[in-house]
Write a structure and sequence with these properties.
Strand content: 15-25%
Structural class: alpha+beta
Number of helices: 16
Largest sheet: 8 strands, mixed
Bound molecules: 4-amino-1,4-dioxobutan-2-aminium adenosine-5'-monophosphate, magnesium ion
Shape: globular
Number of strands: 16
């Protein structure tokens, strides 16, 4: 019996097992909030029912103690989850030691050090449930559309996405690498199966700490024989829309817990994505192309002004809250409430101050952007700021893209790649494109990128034996979760993040 099944057991007596997350008491009653992994529920313990001694045990039970409760399920719309349990009896399974994570605000480093426990908190619970629904939705889409899941190796002998972010490892005294992408193997598997997708961990030795980069992340990489860039772009859009629709339909409770306004997600699920060539995207960044009467540069200038005003307002509220937290005339509960609020606002203001520092730099880099540059994180933010849907940027200068990208026959300066940028400041979530089929051009590119030819002989075989036009893409799972849940940082999107400087717990 789980909390999520309460709706099927109204007015029945049930037994649930879980952990205590919160407790309060008033005159002969103790209110325990129990979580059992499937949900959260308030459980009422009444002295008249359980007796004085048991009430006292409940009233002093430490947070995160494990407990079994027997009681009646009662519908009550005001309660979390819409039900409460009127307890007739309970048994303590294990009494917990003093729990380090309390209801007050904690710093991020402390929470990351306690990630193994932090995962139990409500917000993390909601994020991980959404992650699970996204993963399932991804498999549903591909399985329902004739794709075969095939796994690429993790230990590889060649680079796929450039040599600067390779993790090297010792493979029976020979150097090998942790896979940066399953794509090259995906291409081989597509020639055997027609349409495949891989779903596996990938590794990048990112040398900088950002909100978007993990050293170990999960990538979904479909590869399709006989698809050109346009068909690939259509598939990406259908795929993302289908995932969004399923998550929106099934994760309402989780979005509520995260206080996620899902308007932008609904847009993305229902409205056609914006498509810009790289050349058009450059004009948008530089403020030369207006979108619905708005221009990127003036919009950013307005954003900056708004952020600065917000900082002043939040600062003022912090002062007011702190005065109340120190007011000897107020009750302890009210003082604590204001102390907590002030601490929360101090965290908020750090983010606002970061924005106030960043926007002027974004403006500068947008104004100075030159055709031929790759889009940086801030450029992506600037572009997506003007649109209410994801933006697909395609037809890139070939120099900024990987060696396998197909050159445009009409304009050989360009490569047939596409990036999908998520709105609300999130930027690239998908990178993909059509693959080069001209063997001579590929060989030239492999040399140009200074990659070891012998490691790519097998890959060139794919062009020797029945080469066909083909395309594919890679979706970064954690980037998608980050946007869908509107997280500040990608570290909260994966159970145990691996990033520069962090591989524990
Ligand atoms: O754009 P990328 O590097 O493309 C590839 O790896 C291609 N081989 C994919 C393909 O065509 N089959 O990476 C694809 C996606 C990015 O759009 C981003 O979402 C994610 O992978 N990604 C990362 N996510 C988290 N941390 C990192 N360090 C990431 N690097 C890439
Ligand atoms: Mg990319």
């Amino acid at each position: 019996m789980q909390i999520q099944d309460f709706s099927k057991h109204i007015d029945q007596t049930v037994t649930i097992k879980g952990w205590l997350t919160n407790r309060r008491s008033s005159k002969g009653l103790v209110f325990l909030v129990l979580r059992d992994g499937s949900g959260f529920a308030q459980c009422i313990i009444d002295e008249k029912v359980v007796g004085e001694e048991k009430l006292k045990i409940a009233d002093t039970l430490p947070q995160e103690s494990s407990i079994e409760l027997i009681g009646k399920v009662v519908k009550d719309e005001r309660q979390i989850g819409g039900y409460e349990l009127q307890v007739s009896d309970f048994n303590i399974i294990t009494k917990a030691e003093e729990y380090p994570i309390t209801n007050k605000e904690h710093g991020v480093d402390f929470l990351m050090d306690n990630r193994h426990l932090w995962l139990r908190s409500k917000r993390q619970w909601a994020i991980m449930r959404i992650r699970n629904r996204i993963i399932f939705a991804i498999h549903q889409f591909f399985q329902e559309n004739g794709f075969v899941e095939m796994d690429a190796p993790i230990i590889t002998g060649n680079a796929c996405e450039g040599t600067s972010t390779l993790f090297e490892t010792d493979f029976y005294e020979k150097p090998a690498y942790l896979s940066q992408s399953g794509q090259l193997y995906g291409e081989a598997m597509a020639m055997a199966m027609g349409k495949i997708y891989t779903f596996g961990p990938t590794f990048r030795a990112e040398k900088s700490k950002t909100r978007r980069h993990l050293s170990e992340f999960w990538m979904i990489e479909p590869e399709m024989a006989f698809y050109d860039l346009a068909q690939n772009m259509d598939l990406i859009e259908q795929f993302l829309k289908s995932v969004l629709k399923r998550v929106l339909a099934d994760c309402k409770t989780e979005f509520e817990i995260l206080e996620r306004d899902t308007k932008m997600l609904e847009n993305a699920a229902n409205i056609p994505f914006t498509k810009l060539t790289y050349t058009e995207a450059v004009a948008v960044i530089k403020g030369e192309k207006e979108i619905n009467g708005k221009n990127a540069i003036t919009t950013l200038e307005e954003d900056l002004k708004a952020v600065q005003e917000k900082i002043v307002a939040v600062q003022k509220e912090i002062e007011e809250r702190e005065a109340k937290a120190n007011d000897p005339n107020l009750k302890k509960g009210e003082k604590n409430f204001n102390r907590n609020k002030a601490d929360q606002l101090k965290n908020d203001i750090k983010d606002l101050e970061e924005q106030a520092r960043n926007i002027p730099q974004w403006l500068l880099s947008a104004k100075n952007f030159e055709f031929g540059n790759d889009l940086g994180g801030s450029d992506e933010t600037v572009i997506t700021r003007l649109f209410d849907t994801p933006v697909m940027v395609y037809n890139w200068p070939h120099e900024v893209k990987a060696f396998y990208m197909k050159r445009d026959e009409q304009d050989p300066r360009l490569a047939k790649g596409v990036d999908v940028l998520a709105p609300e400041g999130y930027g690239e979530i998908v990178g993909g494109g059509e693959r080069e089929t001209n063997k001579e051009w590929l060989v030239e590119k492999i040399k140009e990128h200074k990659l070891p030819m012998e490691a790519f002989e097998w890959y060139l075989d794919l062009r020797r034996f029945g080469s066909v036009p083909h395309s594919g893409f890679g979706l970064g799972l954690e980037r998608l979760i980050c946007w869908i849940c509107k997280l500040q940082h990608v570290r909260e999107s994966i159970p145990f993040p691996r990033m520069m400087g962090r591989f524990l717990p």
